[in-house]
Sequence to fold (239 residues):
Amino acid sequence: MSGPALIQHSVSTWTQPPPTMASPERAQLVAALAQTVCGLGPGRLKVAVDGRTASGKTSFGHELAEALAARGRPVLRASLDDFKRPWRDRSLYDRESGEGYYRNAFDYDAVRRLLLEPMTGDGACALCAIDPRTQIDHSTVRVIAAPDAILVVDGVFAFRPELNDHWHYRIWLDIPVADSIDRGLARDGGDGIVMRERYVVSEDVYSAEVDPAARADVVIDNRRFHQPRVVRGHLEGLG
Fold:
């Protein structure tokens, strides 16, 4: 193999750079996960990384994408944050309370139609619908998934019934609620009201209705960045 395969990213401005200087333990776990995913087959695959707010989903998605590309598989990277309903329509529904955020913030029809279904069709995927920061509609910007491409999508509520059957592999990053709050405040600032009254509440509703960790193929304790640990599931090549 001459080098890593191509990773295609969303055009969204709501981006996060890949983490640097992973520990040997973390690198080993991500490599084992990439081996496990590649072992699912040679065709197009769809992988979801779910977990509470600030559990490390986007960083983990980037790491997994790099490891998959290093194994020669083309990768498409997307985030469910790029498939929220536009703010201009917020008067039509509640997306600001915890319950409302869970019920109404994301456009799951767009996720299926623009991102997931093309992976089993012509491969012409939109990796971003509405840019969360600029509110620009990028749904006509398409990338073509190679026949052996792997789509890695991070985001809360990824295992909801509207999406769950589309995934070939599901990853749940497990952190305590208190850690989610602390990390979210460190990342986003603020007084914590949005974190506690919107995100925590919405994720509690999700947990009660869907039990996402039970739907995952692998559950990873991601409390310590340099020492992630498999809680449930088996990864190829990991002792």
Observations:
- The helical segments are 24-38, 57-70, 98-104, 108-116, 161-164, 177-188, 193-210, 212-215.
- Residues 98 and 202 are 4 Å apart (CA to CA).
